[in-house]
Specification:
Layout: H1 6-18, H2 24-34, H3 40-54, H4 56-63, H5 73-88, H6 94-108, H7 111-127, H8 138-146, H9 150-160, H10 162-171, E1 178-182, H11 189-198, E2 202-205, E3 212-217, H12 224-227, E4 231-233, H13 236-244, E5 252-255, H14 262-271, E6 276-281, H15 284-296, E7 302-306, E8 321-327, H16 342-345, H17 348-368, E9 369-379, H18 385-397, E10 401-404, E11 416-417, E12 420-423, H19 425-428, E13 433-440
Parallel strand pairs: 5-6, 5-8, 6-7, 8-9
Antiparallel strand pairs: 1-3, 1-4, 2-3, 9-13, 10-13, 11-12, 12-13
Helix pairs in contact: 1-2, 1-3, 1-5, 3-5, 4-5, 5-6, 5-7, 6-7, 8-9, 8-10, 9-10, 13-14, 17-18
The structure holds S-adenosylmethionine (SAM).
Keywords: Cytoplasm, Methyltransferase, RNA-binding, rRNA processing, S-adenosyl-L-methionine, Transferase
Protein name: 16S rRNA (cytosine(967)-C(5))-methyltransferase
EC number: 2.1.1.176
């Protein structure tokens, strides 16, 4: 296979995402490897793919008046990709964008298509894109402006109010900072920062958590510190989970939905070589990732088992775990900056189906918690039904549990309400996330 240039590779990824072949983050890594894309081109490919995907609905609104008839999906993606560069990237001159786009169209099809691509882009250059001010309905306008489906903007507006929704939608368009967790069983944060800086990375302490660092320059996966197991790539919101579980030495802990092991390994680090964390996930290939991460970090107190946690009660004696974590499968609406494709595919039906799974896993997990033990429920979504709704279901159906106060760092405390922590992406720049704890009486 000949190597593809960055724009053509971006087009391939956009097409594959539309055909639901895989998630954007996984596809991007595959294409980078397959086409041996390196250096600044990795950044450009990421920007083109994520940018075009993030702004899809806005770009379609802008393109609509210039398209006389329906075009093939790859042509539409090529036009979106070109328009994204024209509108949002100021370093690439329009003539270069037009030339490249027409060349791609020629390589992929006949003259008619390349002529049409050329014509549409030149017409946009001449006339400019249509104004969004024509849209009078505030929810519809926000939907187009920030490229979130209207049903979702309406749902968030009903649940959290328009202003919060607007901030969330706007934040979702910004690239997130990469953050990492320091493996405190092996080093200190100061030491890791020194080492990373000597490797040429630019990093700083997280203002939220003592074990977290933020990368301002460079992908930390490529650092020696990562290879040596001194850090794990993890979002700061996700790191709050192990912090609220009140982990103490020698505890036996169950992680019901654990792959790829971000929280399992954090829990194991907090156990500091004592006790044990047993990590479950559905399939063998996912469970393998947990093991690989634990091995890289040098953690011996992790056991992994592939199993459906909706049947986990059959596998253990009741009431044997000090702590149980259900980091549930969810709609993922808190991580749209990292996985923009989610916003176009998730539906209200998915939310309902996920809620049923969340209830089933919690029901099984509840039996396994020791009296006095803590059950933690978390999701990376922003949705009241999946979050507070599931908490309410649990408390109503399991009277042997009570809501348990979350002990979080002072900076996060103002975001705890009714013993639940809902973080919005705009709060700290970290992922949208939800956490609640229940204590068995
Ligand atoms: C939010 S992710 C977990 C992330 C993980 N806790 C971490 O911090 O790296 C949810 C996980 O639940 C798993 N899952 C979905 N349904 C499940 C089930 N019925 N039993 C066990 N795991 C399940 C998915 O495979 C997915 O890996």
């Amino acid at each position: 296979m000949p190597k593809k240039n960055v724009r053509e590779a971006a087009l391939d990824i956009l097409e594959a995402i539309e055909k639901h072949q895989s998630y954007s983050n996984l596809l991007l890594n595959k294409v980078i490897e397959k086409n041996h894309i390196t250096g600044p081109d990795v950044g450009l490919l990421t920007e083109l793919t994520y940018g075009t995907l993030q702004r899809k609905l806005t770009l379609d609104y802008y393109l609509k008046p210039f398209l006389q008839k329906k075009v093939e999906p790859w042509v539409l993606n090529l036009l979106r990709l070109s328009l994204y560069q024209m509108l949002y990237l100021d370093k690439i001159p329009d003539r270069a964008i037009l030339f490249e786009s027409v060349e791609i169209a020629k390589r992929r099809s006949h003259r008619g298509v390349s002529g049409m691509v050329n014509g549409v882009l030149r017409a946009i250059q001449r006339k400019g894109v249509p104004s969004l001010d024509k849209i009078k309905d505030a929810v519809e306008k926000l939907s187009i402006e920030t490229s979130h489906p209207q049903w979702l903007v309406q749902r968030w507006t009903d649940q959290f109010g328009f202003e919060k929704t607007k901030k969330m939608c706007e934040t979702n368009l910004m690239a997130p900072l990469q953050t990492a967790r320091v493996n405190l069983t092996r080093t200190t944060r100061e030491e890791v920062i020194k080492q990373l800086e000597s490797e040429g990375f630019l990093v700083q302490e997280s203002p939220i958590l003592v074990e977290a660092i933020q990368s301002l320059k460079g992908n930390l996966v490529h650092s020696d510190c990562y290879q040596k197991g001194l850090i794990s790539i993890q979002d700061e919101s996700s790191m709050i989970v192990a912090n609220v579980m009140e982990i103490e030495p020698n505890q036996l802990i169950l992680d019901c939905c654990a792959a790829p092991g971000g929280k399992t390994t954090h829990i194991a680090e907090k156990l500091n070589g004592t006790g044990k964390v047993i990590a479950h996930d559905l399939h063998e290939h996912k469970v393998k990732l947990i093991k690989e991460n634990a091995d890289r970090l040098g953690l011996q107190n992790v056991e992994t088992i592939a199993m459906d946690s909706r049947k986990i009660g059959e596998h253990y004696q009741s009431e044997i775990f000090d702590r149980v974590l259900v980091d549930a499968p969810c709609s993922g609406l808190g991580v749209l900056r990292r996985k923009p494709d989610i916003k176009y595919v998730k539906t209200i039906h998915d939310i309902r189906a996920l809620q049923t799974i969340q209830h089933s896993i919690l029901t099984e997990a509840a039996q396994l918690v020791k009296p006095g033990g803590i059950l933690t429920y978390s999701t990376c979504t922003v949705d009241k039904e999946e979050n507070e709704g599931t908490v309410q279901y649990f408390l109503e159906n399991f009277p042997d549990f009570e809501a348990y106060s979350l002990h979080v760092p002072a900076t996060i405390q103002p975001f705890v309400q009714n013993n639940c922590l809902q973080i919005f992406p705009q709060d700290f720049g970290s992922d949208g996330f939800f956490i609640a704890c229940f204590k068995k009486r």
